[in-house]
Amino acid sequence: MKKYLDIILHAIYGCIIGVANIIPGVSGGTMAVMLNIYDKLIDSFTGLRKHFKKSIRFLLPILIGAGIGVVVFSKLIKYLIAYFPMPTCFFFIGLIIGSLPLVFRKSLETKFRPVSLIPLFVLLAAMTALAFVNTESQETAAAGIQMNIGSWLYLFFASAVAAMCMIIPGVSGSMILMVFGIYATVIGAISDLTKHFFDNCMILLPVGLGVVFGIVFGAKLIDICLKRFPQMTFFAIIGLMLGSPLAIFMKFQAQSQAQEVNNFTFTAMNITISAVVCLIGLAIALFFGSDKRKK
User: Quick one: which of 215, 227, 185, 218 has its CA closest to 202?
Assistant: First the structure.
């Protein structure tokens, strides 16, 4: 009986992690830490070859639950992006900014070394540059336009990077997808999977392969980086997070302007609502990342 209860519980945990991973600024890794399964999750991924059966028994219900959470919640996210892009954008930005203190505290768990600032500035510069990269070819793929090899490779690479990042507590994989300009494409393909099954599968196939690659190989890489170069790794994450709000803002604005109805307008009401939800997102992230919450 306990065995089946554990399976159900792990599926629920997976659903929570899946929903967290689909919200830019919310870290699935942080949720796994709070649910007290993070270490076992990483061990299961890194030890998949050595302890295949044991790892699969633990991972399968979590992965199924995560898949359910992603599919169900994607429709709501798609609706919010389509009709309330500006408040949604600033809510995500608030979540990201509110997650910074958690990562910063982790970066200072070891003695500060100035050399650790190098990856911070490199990632900050990269994210800033990426904010101005035209990702129109990737975003239009959601409309049913035939994808080419370049689009497949781009989706695979971005998804692999996002999967690697979502393993780290405090970092959102969806934030990375948004920075790369494919978040709306992926959400749209998931939520409308049954409507245009073949076209959406052509989008989700490289995404799925990228996620599997990122998790399986990324878990080991991240584990090595966090053990050998913890401070440099966390400062790199901080650089990524500092540069991502601008990138997300630019992607949201460009995507909204490309639609027939542009809802990303700086009206008094939009600005007020966006400011309020940004503060709400900030407060939520600070709450879940606080030391008091952990205790």
Answer: 185
**Owner of token pair 């780290």:** 168
d(CA 27, CA 25): 6
pLDDT along the chain (295 residues), means of 10: 80 86 73 74 78 86 89 82 86 85 84 91 85 53 57 89 78 78 83 79 89 82 82 87 82 72 82 94 80 53
d(CA 130, CA 134): 9
Q: What are the two backbone dihedrals, phi and then psi, of residue 149, each rounded to the nearest 5 degrees?
A: -60, -40
Q: List Cβ neighbours of 67 (8 Å cut-off, separation of 6 or more).
A: 14, 18
Residue 162 identity (one-letter amino acid) = A
Cβ neighbour number for residue 8 with a 10 Å cutoff: 11
Q: Calculate the CA 59 to chain-centre distance.
A: 19
The DSSP H or E segment spanning 277 is: helix 268-289
The 3-class secondary structure across 196-256, one letter per residue, is CHHHHHHHHHHHHHHHHHHHHHHHHHHHHHHHHCHHHHHHHHHHHHHHHHHHHHHHHHHHH
Question: What is the Cα–Cα distance from 180 to 265, expressed in whole angstroms?
Answer: 23
Rounded to 5 degrees, φ, ψ at 111 are -60, 135
- The label of the residue with tokens 């203190």 reads 101
Tokens 């998790």 belong to which residue?
215
Cβ contacts of 89 within 8 Å, gap of 6 or more: 248, 249, 252, 253, 264, 274
Q: Does the predicted model carry a pTM greater than 0.85?
A: no
